[in-house]
Specification:
The complex is a heterodimer of chains A (about 325) and B (about 290). With about 325 residues, chain A is mainly alpha-helical. Chain A contains eleven helices and two strands. In chain A, helix 3 packs antiparallel against helix 8 and helix 10 runs antiparallel to helix 11. The relative contact order of chain A is 0.15. Chain B is mainly α. The longest helix of chain B is centred in the N-terminal third of the chain and has 41 residues. Helices cover about 75% and strands about 0% of the residues of chain B. Chain B is built from eleven helices and no strands. Classes of the chains: A mainly alpha (about 325), B mainly alpha (about 290). The interface between A and B is large, with 104 and 99 residues.
Chain lengths: ~325, ~290
């Protein structure tokens, strides 16, 4: 890898300089390059160690860790489909609720909002990303979950004919509450990317649409959205990555039941939640602990895949602009 | 001037659609603000009386089953100590890597590989960073099992990609004419970086770093398996340490109302710290904006 290191352009004005005076320059260049390379080494090292720690669970359970439906620590059986299922369902709910609101917010801020309130409003939306996830968990446990319980019960009984959504018993903590909190948490991320992408839509396109007699909405639908589709998709994928990896807010409101919930409003589990919740219990059982590392490994690979696809979309959506994915408030991706 | 009148009118149906859709977009923007307002409202309503209560900032949680559960002193100081160490690691390192990317690596293949992996790092869930440090430092029992400095390193790992990416953006904003002028005057490259590039982008670097600090401060998951929490106040980063997010996380699961109240108070404190950092970061960046 080091072979590709660049030479820079250090020797531009060395007319009257002794070779010795260039030493600090070269030291600096090699130090900085080494630091950058150290990051690659570090990621690789962590990955290998994580695989190493999960190896006994991998050899015991293989892929049935992901596809088998029986999480039973007391019998040392770790088939984690209920966890994978919970992760996927809550993330899907987060996307269904969060992404449309995020895109609409971005469209409003860039295309419709009066200039004077655009900046303060954008800052407020960005601040959603600044709230720590444990605080969302706190709020979810003591406010959101109890307040929404009657609404959920009404919804479940009214729409009981819809399979998996209606009917059955509604628990205080459930997939839906977890998904809703995740939706709030990914909203600022998706919205920031969408805003960034929408600002890159060329003015000629929008003016052209308006000149042809399009209304504002038609301009948005026919000029803005098609142009920014790829970038917005990437933003949504980054939000998905965040939702998949989020731990603390989810572990507090998903109910932590290690079976697949029968309904949307039943309690469940997620890959990240199981690690946070059972790590203490697993401390003295090697295989149990290894299974939790395996869950971490699956989570790591899952977020990696989602993020790689997301980056590809965002890069395609912001062709030419260097800043792809930089606008994420407070940080960039990375679930808790 | 009469041309306007000769244009065909927009049909009522299209006009209604336009109005409805604009209204929906506006409603969505308002909806997006609802959670923030609600979270802040409940933090104030449920946390304010605890925060202003006596001993909240001056006593440690005591773990007693009855009576006064104690305050958040050890958690507050633990968070400040750990975030200070994490910042001392992540900010210089992050700016150094960003300097490599903008001043030396530029568009070379190696630099792009680094950029790519830094982006990948931003997507790694923070609990996985906690697992990494647990495997490398806690299992290996480097200087004790659970310690404050291990928590700080886990948080630093999480802050690192944020610092790198935000620093790279502001370093790129330094006009190359400035660099070239300094080089033409005979300055060696390290002095150009030290005397021209860094001072010019200073406020931007501070903004990015402050946002990373704000982010790192609220993280719970990486601390769970690295510093594990404690009750007592300690200045020793080599011992188990309390932190605001950990204490909130534990307090939420308590059956006692007094402890749940303390969670709200601690939550209010944490959000206040994070918001202050965000506001300061914005002020710094506004003041700096290169004209």
């Amino acid at each position: 890898v080091e072979a590709a290191a660049p030479t820079g352009s250090g020797g531009r004005s060395i007319l009257s300089r002794s070779p010795l005076s260039r030493v600090p320059d070269q030291v600096l260049q090699w130090t900085l390059t080494a630091l950058a390379a150290a990051i690659l080494v570090l990621i690789g090292y962590f990955f290998v160690r994580l695989i190493g720690q999960s190896s006994s669970a991998i050899s015991h359970f293989g892929l049935s860790f992901v596809f088998g439906n029986d999480w039973n620590p007391s019998k040392l059986i770790f088939h984690g489909l209920p966890l994978v299922f919970g992760t996927l369902v809550t993330s899907a709910i987060a996307l269904l609720i969060g992404v449309p609101v995020a895109i609409a917010t971005a469209l409003f801020l860039i295309e419709l909002c009066p200039r004077r309130i655009r900046t303060p409003l954008s800052i407020l939306v960005d601040l959603l990303a600044a709230v720590p996830s444990v605080v969302y968990g706190l709020w979810g446990v003591f406010v959101l979950a109890p307040k929404l319980l009657p609404v959920e019960k009404w919804f479940a009984s009214t729409f009981s004919f819809i399979p998996w959504i209606g009917g059955g018993t509604t628990t205080l903590y459930n997939y839906f509450i977890a998904g809703l909190i995740l939706a709030i948490m990914i909203l600022p991320i998706v919205s920031a990317i969408a805003r960034e992408v929408i600002t890159t839509v060329p003015a000629e396109l929008k003016e052209g649409a308006l000149a042809l007699g399009a209304t504002r909405w038609e301009m948005i639908r026919m000029a803005v959205l098609p142009y920014s589709r790829s970038g917005i998709t990437g933003g949504a994928m980054l939000g998905l990555g965040r939702a998949v990896g989020e731990t603390i807010a989810v572990v507090l409101v998903i109910g932590n039941a290690d079976v697949i919930g029968k309904h949307l409003f039943n309690q469940g589990y997620s890959l990240a939640a199981v690690i946070a919740n059972e790590f203490g219990e697993a401390a003295n059982t090697a295989l149990y602990k290894s299974a939790l590392f395996y869950a971490g490994l699956v989570l790591f690979i899952l977020t990696l895949i989602v993020n790689i696809i997301a980056r590809w979309f965002v890069a395609r959506g912001t062709r030419g602009t260097r800043a792809a994915g930089h606008a994420i408030p407070g940080m960039a991706g990375g679930g808790q | 001037m009469t041309t306007l009148n000769t244009l065909p009118q927009v049909s009522p149906r299209r006009r209604t659609t336009d109005k409805v859709m604009r209204g929906l977009l506006f409603a969505a923007a308002l909806l997006a603000l609802v959670p923030l307002v609600l979270v802040v409202y409940y933090l104030l309503r449920k946390g304010l009386s605890t925060v202003t209560g006596s001993g909240f900032f001056s006593s440690d949680p005591n773990g007693n089953f009855f009576g006064n559960p104690g305050g958040i002193r050890s958690a507050l100081f633990g968070t400040l100590e750990m975030i200070a160490l994490a910042s001392a690691i992540a900010i210089p390192l992050g700016i150094a890597v960003a300097l490599y990317l903008t001043e030396y690596g530029k568009e070379s293949r190696f630099a792009n590989v680094i950029r790519y992996f830094v982006d990948v790092m931003t997507g790694v869930p923070s609990i996985v960073f906690g697992l990494f440090i647990y495997i490398v430092l806690v299992i290996a029992h480097v200087g004790g099992a659970f310690t404050g400095w291990k928590g700080a390193i886990a948080v630093a790992l999480l802050m690192l990609p944020i610092v790198i990416r935000s620093s790279e953006v502001v370093l790129l904003l330094v006009p190359s004419s400035l660099r070239e002028a300094a080089l033409a005057l005979g300055a060696p490259r390290w002095r150009v970086i030290w005397r021209v590039v860094l001072p010019t982008s200073l406020s931007g670097l501070i903004t990015g770093s402050l946002l990373a600090v704000a982010r790192g401060m609220g993280e719970t998951a990486p601390l769970l398996f690295t510093t594990a929490g404690a009750f007592a106040l300690t200045a020793n980063l080599g011992a188990q340490m309390n932190a605001l997010p950990i204490q909130i996380y534990n307090d939420i699961q308590s059956p006692r109302q007094a402890i749940i109240d303390r969670a709200w108070g601690a939550g209010l404190t944490l959000v206040a710290l994070v918001l202050i950092l965000n506001v300061v970061a914005r002020i710094v960046s506004r003041r700096s904006r290169m004209a």
